[in-house]
Amino acid sequence: MILQKNTNTTMKNTQTITAVGMLVAGLAFAVAGFITPPPGEISDSVLWLFSQCLIYAGSIFGVGIYVDRRFSAFTKEFRRSGLNPENNTNEQPENERENEQDYEKTESTD
Length: 110
Description:
With 110 residues, the chain is mostly helical. The protein contains 3 helices and no strands. 79% of the residues lie in helices and 0% in strands.
């Protein structure tokens, strides 16, 4: 478990570092494109490169935030449902047993 936690932390750190690095590189290319001759004019290729850097950084941050929120909502719902694997009980909740008994009654009367 410890190895898995460290791997997850390392992966998140790597993603954050690369995203910030891409933002810095994109900004540096945009500034370099602005100050090179002819001054004040940015080439289309520099703008394209800058936009790709923004897209990469946005996808890293956006997807990470989305996945973290969805996963936390899923685990919260899983724990609330009573199907926590830490309990190690194979008993069905009371309301599910009643539903099965009702289904068996209607099935036998048909």
